[in-house]
TrEMBL record:
GO cellular component terms listed in the entry, alphabetical order: cytoplasm; nucleus
Superkingdom per UniProt: Eukaryota
Residue intervals of the Anti-proliferative protein domain: 82-101
PANTHER family in the cross-refs: ANTI-PROLIFERATIVE PROTEIN DOMAIN-CONTAINING PROTEIN, B-CELL TRANSLOCATION GENE
Organism this protein belongs to: Herpetotheres cachinnans (Laughing falcon)
Name of the protein in question: BTG1 protein
Amino acid sequence: TAAAFITRLLRAAGGIGEEQLRCFRECLQEALREHYKHHWFPLVPSKGSGYRCIRINHKMDPLIGKAAGMIGLSHERLFQLLPSELTLWVDPFEVSYRIGEDGSICVLYESPQPGGKTTKPLESRTSCKEEWRIGRSSPSKNYNMMTVSS
């Protein structure tokens, strides 16, 4: 889910071919899988969450940078294409993100946790506006919300 989201951000920015985007997504998925291999705790989902955080904040996250390098994108180009402030939390049962330091935390993926907790499907959510579409680096604290779709 996290790799697909970053790929959608790149696609929306334009200028990258579909084959390159597919390769980027696959490389990022593999990098995340390898990076999280010994830091994934479904019985205690919040354990290791800091390690699994993907962050762009005046520095490019190394996992995103590595995947981008595989398709010939420099860090400079990535900074032009992606939000300047982006945080993604990749945890068992949930992937969420925030654009800007003051932005809302938006859920991209959520699945039932052990113990019978159920969640709403992503399509029914109306909690987040895709601020990157209008070029803000840090969204205002009061903005209208819309559904994030894949």
